[in-house]
Amino acid sequence: MSIYINKLTTNLSKAVLISACSLGLGFAVTANAAPTTNNATITKSSPVFLGDGGNYPFSEAVRVGDTLYMSGQIGFKDGKLVKGGVKAEAKQALDNINETLLKYGYQKSDIVKCMAMLTDMDDFDDFNKVYKAELTKPYPVRSAFGVSELAAGASVEVECIAAK
């Protein structure tokens, strides 16, 4: 009886493993096949934290490999929010993003993703006019959200990711 239980347990274990692998986990398994080695090389790049948020608890950007993740930017210039509403703020926010890109060896054409936050979705068309003037085709992928409030009373905040 003990031999039968051991054999049953072994066969059930193989069946569970084969079933799990066939559910899309990316493994190819055959019942009595010899193990194979995977020659794929994975290189892990540690994050490099760049700049700082001054008095605020965040980094200006983080580079992982060739990808640059930037903190969100509002329309600050010389420590103050620019005047002129959403168009002026959007232009300054994108100028600030460009400054960060250049500082770390990237350019606007390296941007692959942006996220825009607007305190008034009625400003969406005005924001898009500035965005289209500042960036060129092919445009990065983008999300836009209506939010109730932004730091320093800003109307718009833009956050981007760039990759080489």
Give structural notes.
This protein has about 160 residues and is an alpha+beta fold. The chain contains 3 helices and 8 strands, in the order H-E-E-E-E-E-H-E-H-E-E. A hairpin with a 2-residue loop joins strand 2 (about 60-65) and strand 3 (about 65-70). The longest helix has 21 residues, at about 1-20. The model is unreliable at about 5-30 (pLDDT under 50). It holds the Pfam family Ribonuc_L-PSP. Belongs to the RutC family.
SSE layout and pairing:
Layout: H1 2-22, E1 48-50, E2 61-64, E3 67-70, E4 76-77, E5 80-81, H2 85-103, E6 111-118, H3 124-134, E7 141-146, E8 156-163
Parallel strand pairs: 6-7
Antiparallel strand pairs: 1-2, 2-3, 3-8, 4-5, 6-8
Helix pairs in contact: 2-3
Which terms would index this structure?
alpha+beta; 60s Ribosomal Protein L30, Chain: A; six-stranded mixed sheet; two-stranded antiparallel ribbon; 31% helix; globular; RutC-like_sf
Global shape:
globular
Question: What is the CATH topology assignment of the domain at 59-163?
Answer: 60s Ribosomal Protein L30, Chain: A
* Main beta-sheet annotation: 6 strands, mixed
What is the CATH class designation of the domain at 59-163?
Answer: Alpha Beta
Spans where pLDDT lies below 50 across 5 or more residues:
4-31
Organism: Psychrobacter luti
Pfam families: Ribonuc_L-PSP (PF01042)
Keywords: Signal
Family: Belongs to the RutC family.
Summarize the structure.
It is built from three helices and eight strands.
